[in-house]
Amino acid sequence: MFETISKNFFMALSQSKTLNKAARKWGLKFGASQVVAGETIESAIEAVKKLNEKGLVATLDHLGEFVTSREEAMEATDYCIKTLEAISISGVKSGLSVKLTQLGLDIDKQFCVDNMKKILETAKKYNIFVRIDMEDYSHCQVTLDILRELRETYNNVGTVIQAYLFRAYQDVKDLKGVPLRLVKGAYKESPEVAYQDKKDVDENYLKIIKEHLFSGSYTAIATHDHNIIAKVKEFVKEHNIPNSQFEFQMLYGFRTELQLSLVKEGYKVRIYIPFGNDWFGYFMRRLAERPQNVAFAFRGFFSK
């Protein structure tokens, strides 16, 4: 009961434009600095370097939500391009993650597509992979439509499929051959479109992981759930699926010991590294996911 109330509370906070705006003035407080790698490209690159030294690779994500003007979207596009340039210049092992709403999707679809093409042209030049992050259900279909359009020209782009959605399995089948990041899902969705019970989500998550691996497609398994990870290990061993066909992914600041243990076992592990001053929505969703994260945040706040 408490877990449900806690999740609903933090999900509601994550969607508050007023609090999101205020948070930009606060800076990285309330424990957010433990899970967000600073506010600048330089701080993000330094975080990647430290992870690379430990055998981990990364994906950088310049945080941003509630973009309502073309100017903001163009600024976000330019910042993504600068981030790609910084990745190339520094020589770190990292990809880039982007949100289509940050690039103007809610303003004009073609405007957003044009911005994505600018990013992908730069990424292609530097041989960097770009992941289109999946947002809430209302943006799901249009995100996949844009992905298919972009894949006609660029092969250095993929997206995310969320296991809690009923449509996830069919989407994975339809996207055979496309590098996918498979997650359980972090938004609050209606019972009409998404599983509400953790057991059902977990079952569907394993189902879509196995489907994508079986199809021979590159699969990014993004989870901190050691039970899921153990089952994936068993599955790939049983079916002789090479380690080169998949990777485990985790979030910056979470389960660092598990990350390193997987590297020692010979698995590729990628860390999703968010950065920037628009951190509030991301942080609230992390608090909503697990009650333990709330204690984690308060420890960070009071240790300041």
From TrEMBL:
Enzyme Commission designation: 1.5.5.2
Name of the protein described by the UniProt record: proline dehydrogenase
Pathway: Amino-acid degradation; L-proline degradation into L-glutamate; L-glutamate from L-proline: step 1/2
Keyword Nucleotide-binding on entry: yes
Domain Proline dehydrogenase: 45-296
Source domain of life: Bacteria
Coiled-coil parts of chain: none
GO molecular function: oxidoreductase activity
Keyword Nucleus set for record: no
Cofactors: FAD
Annotated Pfam families: Pro_dh
Species: Aeribacillus alveayuensis
SUPFAM superfamilies: FAD-linked oxidoreductase
Reaction equation(s) it catalyzes: L-proline + a quinone = (S)-1-pyrroline-5-carboxylate + a quinol + H(+)
Key words, A-Z: FAD, Flavoprotein, Nucleotide-binding, Oxidoreductase, Proline metabolism
